[in-house]
Fold these 2 entries.
Entry 1:
Amino acid sequence: MSTPALHLTGIGKSFGDVRALHGVDLSVLPGTVHCILGENGAGKSTLCNVVYGGLRPDTGTMTLSGRRYAPGSPAAAMADGVAMVHQHFSLIGTMTVAENLLLTGLGLRLRRAELRTRLDRLADDYHLRIDPDALVSAMPIGARQKVEIVKALLTDPSLILLDEPTGVLDPDEIDALIETCQAVAAAGKAVVLVTHKLGEVARVADAATVLRGGEVAGGGRMSELTIPQLTTAMVGRPVSELSPVLAAGVGTESDGGAMPDRRATGRVVLGLRDVRATRADGSVALSGVGFEVRAGEIVGIAGVEGNGQSELVAVLSGATTPESGTVTLGDADITSASPAERTRLGLGVVPEDRHREAMVAELSLSENLFLGRLHHFRRMGLLDRRRMDAAARDLIEQFSVRTPGPGTSMGSLSGGNQQKVVLARELSTENLQCLVAAQPTRGLDIGAVEFVLNQLRSCASSGNAVLVVSSEIPELLALCDRIFVSYRGALLGPVDASAGTARQHVGELMTGTAA
């Protein structure tokens, strides 16, 4: 057996009374891809940050290639050959890709021409081509994630930690990233990949470790494990108790078991007619888009990122006003309405990028839950925090948010729990008529995905219209009544999600190969 690239013994970490990690043992061999699995809040990101020097463990020891390893900072970890791609982006939006990369420790020693040469080499080796002159703020979320990965690879690390890197990538980009991980491992380096998608684990992992409640709950070599065993270790219950789409493994090629056909005959709640919009660079984002969503109906929009889905959600939320066309909610024309007015009329929106658009990390969970509704908790001109926290506790329990309490800062929660808070806020919108959910399960573990899908189904069953924008085709097939495909600014379809050929038809529309 070769010396482990990374070996952890008895790692523990607590934050006050909250125990994030307890007695974690882990060995990662060079030349392998080691996946770390677990529900949101299981301690995966905390473990990665301990290894990367962002956090110091309370107990335990670490070795790197056989020598003692105790980085006091991320800079020290980088100097030792450890790189990390964080779940949350660290790019500066007002700068170009090249300028961001030149800010890295390695970048400061590179000239621009040398940087471009290095980027071309990485693109050839790892299939991650990026535009160094692109302004980060104008890039779609998937492209920004690729820049983060390239930034880590620029340092030529011997160990690379990837914390949920595929959560914002489209299927082709995920395929490319898996090839990247395999190529890095083939070069003798070690890759630690944190992911919730069991289909990815089956494709790329040499070994896996499951965390539950901050402790190791299972794992080993993938040749000796099955996906159902990993799922059971993650959620603490037999896989057979999960819904068909999740039992098959979200992100796999399973059709997922479509829901019973519910052909909505209710009134039109959300309507778009001939909506057109352009991007900041003048390119066409939406070209004559029109569709309807009826009460009790779930409509899905699929598509490879960059085909107009983000701009469509921006138009629906009120963040962008279309150049032409109309948007209606019930009997109201909301084409030019403000986001606040749309909320008042009963529109809930879950944005695709929760950190930039759906939450304020520095505020408490309670404050985030009632953003825009703080006036309900005013008393004699002051905010009645006790009453607001009491209302927050009810939603915390209803949506199974794992948190010490409503006063906890939103930024300290795991990604899945942050998403549950956003979903709780939007689903509790007064007079809710329609919910627009963009990438609602992005970055969530299998248990949280199941919870979110059930909440969306329940929302529709209550008579609301639901529009789901997602790159997860198995989820859309299991959830929706009809599916449109966003392709080059137009909406193609719809496809009947209950049809036996639905997956093939959606795939053809996404790639522009449909007859």
Entry 2:
Amino acid sequence: MGRGRPCRAWNLMADFSDLFLPKLITVLRDGYDLHAFKADAVAGLTVAVVALPLSMAIAIASGATPAQGLYTAIIGGFLVSALGGSRFQIGGPAGAFIVLVAATVMQHGMDGLILATAIAGLLLVAAGFLRLGTYIKFIPYPVTVGFTAGIAVIIFASQLRELLGLSPDGSEPGPLVEKLPYLWEALPTFSATAVAVSLGTIAVIVVQRRYRPHWPGMLIAVCLAALAVWALSLPVATIGSRFGGIPGGLPAPHLPEITLAKVQAVLPAAVSFALLGAIESLLSAVVADAMTGRRHRSNCELVAQGVANIGSALFGGICVTGTIARTATNVRAGAHGPVAGMLHALFLLVFMLVAAPLAAYIPLSALAGVLAVVAWNMIERDAVLTLLRANTGEASVLGVTFLLTIFRDLTEAIVVGFALGAVLFIARMSRTTAIVTATPLVPVDRPDDGNGGRTEFHEEEAADPDILVYHIRGAFFFGAAASVGAVLDRISDTAKALILDLSAVPFIDSTGAAVIESLGHKMRDRGVPLILIGTTHELRQELFSHDLKPPLVRYEPTLEIARSYAQHRMDPA
């Protein structure tokens, strides 16, 4: 007794370590030298250069300030890398959140957004410790492709005002159906200068990616646009004219006033943030795993994402998640481990401290051009075409998720898309489950043929019309229970014994067990033995939980033994 408890405690500690130990500790424990630090420093600087314009652009598109985008990337990015379950994950503001964040700001104000971000962090921490990260990966692929494409369309639509330099009256509506007529009415106010700046920014990024793919094209394009605006005194909106520049440091940590009414008001938004953040961050970790051959700890990653969102909210930032593009950049830049992500956050802080005054010259149309490129890259065009060609079911899930994302709500799109994908999967699985009758065969030994003898099976020597044998093949679950149950209900009244072969059943759920239980009662009332063969330990556990035990049913290891038992019951002498 005394020895068992320490062993059990040790196993629990080992399991906890496997699930929640940050990859930073794993990397340091394995040995971390100067060469690894240099690789991480180069990768961190590369990612910081990419993240600098993106963080500001995403924040502005979300209805926040560019400074809040930098706070998010610095605080959130540092915590994600320091505490996360992925070696290469880069955290920060993400384009996927633009729609949700902007809607939350419009409905609840900036204080409501910060409170929702903090609550989402708590939800993510709870999800991680409840080990729900294991199940996030079950989101169907067409759903992720569909909502990503939908988000890309919404991001591009949200930047039309800045891309064209429009000056509409009143506040811009959030929903796409209302936004497009609003922008159409404001089309006469477009600015040729803003259009030139945005197109020039896009052109620089595209050309640089074509001929110098390793250069930081987004930063170069934004810097050139800012230089042109300053040198030529171009009449376009800038960070300075719209937001008054960005501060030269981090604010003191604080949270807005918290009341029960406010918590209840922002809770739906917080749940949406947590759901999307979990999906986005774990998808990003999976991408990093595919690029490196490593394996991330999904539940540890959720805990880190939660802490990062709480930290971001404390410093006035917005939602944090793992970012696929920046994480992939980190891997390609040769990162060794999480230190690269931590250094990326520190480099951003240095940029903020040193170059804050220069950010005032960055034109908003240039940042809109950056987000237009991001939106285009978000659409997985090859995946969309493949899914559309695959089959009607996959295309339907993709289309429904895409349309709901654009015209309804992102959370609703994910839930409905997942439900539709699950129904289609259940329908397919039910078609793979079958029940067939078989005439029991007995082995007949033949003389040695020179190869050590042989065993033959002869139906005519074994047929017994009083013994029915049914083979169930495939998962016996609620989707297949109706068709299998219909066959079993038509069992001949003249049968003296019934044998169910479950050796080809990998899984049975409560509905399948209930069908067998009903059959067992039916057979017992008629005085006919029901014999189950080929059951694994897992199947028997499920069947036992539904009281499928002797004498209601009998378990035998093989068909031959089951037949012998049935014959003995029919002819005791």
